[in-house]
Structure formats: C-alpha cells, structure tokens
C-alpha cells in the first residue's frame, strides 16, 4: 500500500535542521549486498559486539525484508567540518549531532502518523559496554539505530543513483541516514 507523503510539510520542517540533501525513495529499489556484510565481518572491530551490527541485526534476507516492509524511505545527509580529516576521534565526535538530527526527523514522521525504522551511521555507541556482549537484550532499543551497512546497504550506490554528493573534499564529512516509513497499522 503506497502512502501519501506530505513533502511540502516535510520540506518546511527540515529547514529547521542542517540537512544537506535528502531524497524520498521507494524501499523496493534498495538493494542489500553481501559484499558489505563481508567487509563488516572481515574489517570492522564492531562486528559481533553490538546490537546495531551483524550478526545481531539478522541475516541479509531478514534485513532486506525489514527495509522493504516499509513503503518509502527518506535518505539524507548532514555535513560536519573538522580541523583534520585524518583525526578519527575528532571525526567521530561530529557523529552525535547527525544522530540527534536523525532522531528528530524520525520523531517528526512518527508524529505525522507513520511507523518508522531508522538506519544510520556507524554502529551504536549509546552504551560504553553493549548488552550484546553479555547475551542480554538491548538497553535502549528505542534510541539504537543500526547502521546502514549492517543491513547490507551500499550508501555510495544510493548516492550515485539519487545524484547526491558523496564527498565534499577538504576537512568535510558527510554523514548519511535512512528512515523507512509506512502508515501505522
């Protein structure tokens, strides 16, 4: 069932936030790729250590189904500037503002009557010691946003398809999130 999205109202709302670019996309067009999951498993130190990462998020098939269980998604970016792009600690400190922005946009969509599912940046860092490591349920599932890559989403492919910016150069960082949404049942 396709939903009626009030883009004018959303456009007006997002002017209050530092959204760099956004696109409304059909979730049926979002592909999940095994190669992303392979990179997670082989190169990311967070693999197997948080509820926001594989294998905790489920199989690729489950992730694809979870995404496509929603009709549409808002895919968006925000910009952060740092003094040195190679300073990972400084770069990661800018992520919090993007996560807050993501939560605010999600809250707006919920208030508009939509059910949402958020995929965002990197892996969750709400808790210093994730409950996943202790075989316990997530302590803050309402705030935890799994990362796009955990679900096999290739951000660069969506950016290219949607003719968005991926790299602004210099000491500038682009953070990306996606909020899937549908009418509440």
Question: Summarize this, please?
Answer:
With 185 residues, the chain is of the alpha+beta class.
Which helices and strands occur, and which strands form pairs?
Elements lengths: L6 H8 L4 E8 L7 H10 L16 H9 L3 E10 L6 H6 L1 H17 L2 E6 L35 H7 L10 E12 L2
Count of helical stretches: 6
**Biggest beta sheet summary:** 4 strands, antiparallel
Q: How many strand segments?
A: 4
Gyration radius from CA atoms, angstroms: 16 Å
Query: What pattern of helices and strands is seen along the backbone?
Result: HEHHEHHEHE
Q: Which strand-content bin applies to the residues?
A: 15-25%
Give the mean pLDDT: 90
Distance between the termini: 11 Å
**Low-pLDDT runs:** none
Largest sheet strand order? 1-2-4-3
Helix content: 25-40%
Silhouette = globular
Which class of secondary structure composition applies to the elements? Answer: alpha+beta
Task: Please give a structural write-up.
There is one protein chain. By secondary structure, the chain is α+β, with helices and mostly antiparallel strands. The protein is built from six helices and four strands; from the N terminus they run αβααβααβαβ. It has a four-stranded antiparallel β-sheet, sandwiched between helices. The longest helix is centred in the middle third of the chain and has 17 residues, at 95-111. The radius of gyration is 16 Å and the shape is globular. It starts with 6 loop residues before the first helix and ends with a strand. The model has no long low-confidence stretch (mean pLDDT 90).
